[in-house]
Write a structure and sequence with these properties.
Length: 100
Amino acid sequence: MDADFKIGYELLKKFKEQIESMANAQNETELMELVEEIKEPIRNATYRIKFGNGPLKEELFSNLAIMVREFREFSNPEELKNAARKVVEILDNLEAQVSA
């Protein structure tokens, strides 16, 4: 795991609870509030992951890219929630790999 990837990973870990909340949002208003709260850190983390190297990079980046696109367009809230759910799963897998 290089420095860029690690910065992105640590940033995502810091906002993991909000990403989980986004995945479990009950309505679009709640989802939009969460998006406004965390969109900039998630964009930053996505950039770091894109240019870094680490485990599960492609899978993590592809789901983060969906989230960033939906932050901008908000055309498919379910896709945003599914991507957030997958990011949380990937973060759990990464935590297990890093701590092993």
